[in-house]
Design a protein that fits this description.
The chain has 667 residues and is α+β, with helices and mostly antiparallel strands. The radius of gyration is 36 Å and the shape is elongated.
Length: 667
């Protein structure tokens, strides 16, 4: 019986290959030397040198190795030696491959195998395409297939879609139809004013017979001239697609969407995105990018000579895109936007559910996607803050529900004078003014006079109980407001009438109104999530709240006749704040039924002698909610806010000391 052939098993290091000094009497004295030399040259990109260690035609092997790098758009390629089994003049070598497929793509790892044979020039790799990958035949090539799911929707509380599907032109290429991919893609990139390299990265590794979308452009930006110029580039094609991109309401809150090539987005956002993907740039579209866009499914495939897929060599399943549920109400949001449309300057409205604090609407008058001041603004509230001042006075014990609260022409506290110009003092007829009546008429002097007995702590505590300055967060930037009471009794007086040291957002004031209506403060929510919400430590006294509610109801019935025709009673406070630069802020803060809201509008002081813009805006908002009819075009305000005797609210302003004068419309 003949002896068994000599069988040797060589164990090589499993780490990355490193160059070493090899001495031998033949070019490739052992299988290990040949394998190591071949892999080192391939790893370093010296494909001509690598071809020398194979039995194949050097030019053909070099071209095949160069093609692998382009077909996979490799960022790097690393090898590790495995076991080498030798039997006589034949051997088989295993090796580990780590192929970095570039930015936005995964890393592909697999184990390769190459046969070797002994010959006159020593050991050489027996060449075939299977050396590149064990499942690749000589008439096949590699490619990377990439498929991105359709972008998901943002939904309101009823499941209604808030983002429209825009018609978009996808500019792309069919690689197989390009004689020079680099030149063609570069020309397309220059035509569209984009960086060519991200586009080339996708084209190099793509299946050549498949259309590869590279740049998404809204149809409004595409004309026949542009299409004609693109069509003259060899291999360039276009397709019409529809993508969920444009918010139908609340653009600042929902946010913008762009393709990664559009506006050079790929250089501005983090994440594994490729040319042709969509990325949220702001608002909920940005914050929930992963949920809305999902992630692409990437595959390394083998293709036959016709470009058809013959096998999937590796697969990385992406994440499905999905919808984002919000607490927004599309009807309330549209009513809010309609209310702001006719107003002359910057204007904002935030609305919440009184029982839960859920955000129903956040609107800006400009319609700008970059203006988030309905949630994140910082404004002087002026007399609108007397809701807080009244609660502080009651909780501190400075005044009871039935106690008289004088409201004279003026009062001086710590050398600071607070006045009620225009209308003058609040009459003491019919038993004299109480706190609710002072609140109804936003009486600066009456609130200021209570300051020494109320104290700074009571003002700050009452504000916090109504949620102003409370510790809460939304997924988008939002301000809870802040109260920093100044020195002495004058500082307390200024804070009680919403001047020095007080800053609020429309959202924070809407939440304060909701707390008065509900009797309990709730942290705002915009995107429902599990887990407890923060809550105030102190329970509000129902008797104190009834005084505040009565004052807010009286404010509407005595100063805002426009709001009296509603089927459900309206409670609110209106104020005008003179900023001292020729600009006024008009406020309305209140609630009706289960909707609490705050509206602030900016106007030129010289143009607001008659009209109270916030009250007019509130009227439009509530009418739209009641009727379900939202004006399609901006219209003139339905009526001017006047008091029963014909004196306008602004002519009856009460100006307090500090940063801004506040309105105390007629009584």
């Amino acid at each position: 019986m003949s002896p068994r052939p000599l069988r040797r098993v060589l164990a090589a290091g499993s780490g990355l290959l490193v160059a070493g000094t090899l001495a031998a009497c033949t070019p490739h004295p052992s299988p290990e030397v040949a394998v190591r030399s071949f892999l080192l040259a391939w790893q370093d990109g010296d494909h001509a040198e690598a071809a020398r260690y194979t039995t194949g035609d050097p030019a053909e092997v070099e071209e095949a190795l160069v093609n692998v790098r382009e077909q996979l758009d490799l960022a790097s390629l690393r090898f590790g030696l495995g076991l080498i089994e030798r039997e006589g003049e034949s051997a088989t070598a295993a090796f580990d491959v780590t192929a970095d497929l570039g930015i936005g793509d995964p890393t592909w790892s697999y184990t390769g195998e190459m046969p070797l044979e002994w010959g006159p020039d020593g050991w050489r790799i027996t060449w075939s395409s299977a050396v590149i990958h064990p499942e690749l035949s000589d008439d096949e090539r590699l490619a990377v297939s990439y498929e991105q799911p359709e972008r998901g929707q943002i939904l309101d509380r009823e499941g209604r879609e808030l983002v429209s599907a825009d018609s978009v032109t996808a500019f792309g290429v069919v690689p197989a139809e390009m004689d020079d991919k680099e030149a063609g893609v570069t020309e397309l990139a220059e035509l569209l004013d984009e960086e060519p390299e991200p586009l080339l990265n996708r084209v190099r590794s793509a299946p050549p017979e498949q259309f590869q979308p590279l740049v998404l452009m809204r149809d409004s930006s595409v004309d026949e001239s542009l299409l004609g110029e693109a069509g003259r580039i060899q291999g360039v094609a276009t397709e019409e697609v529809r993508i969920n991109m444009s918010p139908t309401v609340a653009p600042a809150l929902l946010g913008e969407v762009a393709g990664t090539a559009e506006h050079r987005v790929s250089a501005r956002v983090a994440g594994p995105y490729q040319a042709g993907d969509t990325v949220g740039l702001s608002g909920l579209q940005s914050i929930f990018q992963r949920e809305l866009a999902g992630s692409g499914t990437a595959q390394v495939v083998s293709l036959d000579e016709s470009g058809a897929v013959t096998d999937v060599l590796e697969d990385w399943e992406g994440e499905r895109s999905g919808g984002v549920d919000t607490t927004l109400d599309a009807d309330v949001q549209r009513a809010a936007e309609a209310a702001l449309a006719p107003l002359p300057g910057r204007a904002y409205l935030a609305a919440v559910d009184t029982a839960s604090g859920e955000v129903l609407a956040a609107a800006n008058g400009s319609g700008s996607a970059s203006d988030d001041s309905a949630l994140n603004g910082s404004f002087v509230p002026g007399g609108a803050f007397t809701i807080v001042g009244a609660l502080a006075a009651l909780e501190s014990g400075a005044v009871g529900p039935d106690d008289q609260v004088p409201c004279g022409y003026e009062t001086t506290i710590d050398d600071q004078t607070f006045t009620n110009p225009g209308q003058g003092a609040l009459s003491s007829e019919f038993g004299g003014p109480d706190l609710a009546r002072n609140l109804a008429h936003s009486c600066t002097v009456g609130f200021a006079g209570l300051a020494p007995e109320v104290g700074a702590d009571s003002v700050e505590r009452a504000a916090l109980e109504l949620g102003i300055g409370a510790d809460w967060q939304l997924p988008v930037p939002a301000s809870p407001g802040s109260v920093s009471v100044g020195e002495g009794d004058a500082g307390v007086a200024s804070a009680m009438v919403g001047e020095d040291g007080v800053r609020v957002s429309p959202l924070s004031m809407a939440l304060a109104a909701a707390t008065v209506a509900n009797g309990e403060w709730n942290a705002p929510t915009l995107v429902p999530a599990e887990g407890p919400s923060p809550s105030p430590e102190t329970e509000l006294d129902e008797a104190d709240l009834e005084v505040v509610r009565q004052g807010m109801r009286d404010a509407v019935t005595t100063r805002m006749p426009e709001l009296l025709g509603q089927e459900t009673e309206v409670f609110g406070q209106a104020a005008r704040v003179a900023l001292g630069d020729g600009t006024d802020l008009h406020w309305f803060v209140g609630y009706q039924g289960d909707v609490a809201f705050a509206l602030v509008a900016e106007a030129n002081s010289a143009t607001t002698l008659v009209t109270h813009h916030a009250v007019n805006g509130a009227q439009t908002f509530l009418t739209s909610l009641a009727t379900g009819v939202v004006p399609g075009e901006p219209t003139a305000p339905a009526g001017d806010a006047t008091i029963p005797d014909g004196t306008s609210p602004d002519e009856a302003d009460l100006t307090g000391g500090g940063e801004g004068g506040t309105d105390a419309a007629g009584w």
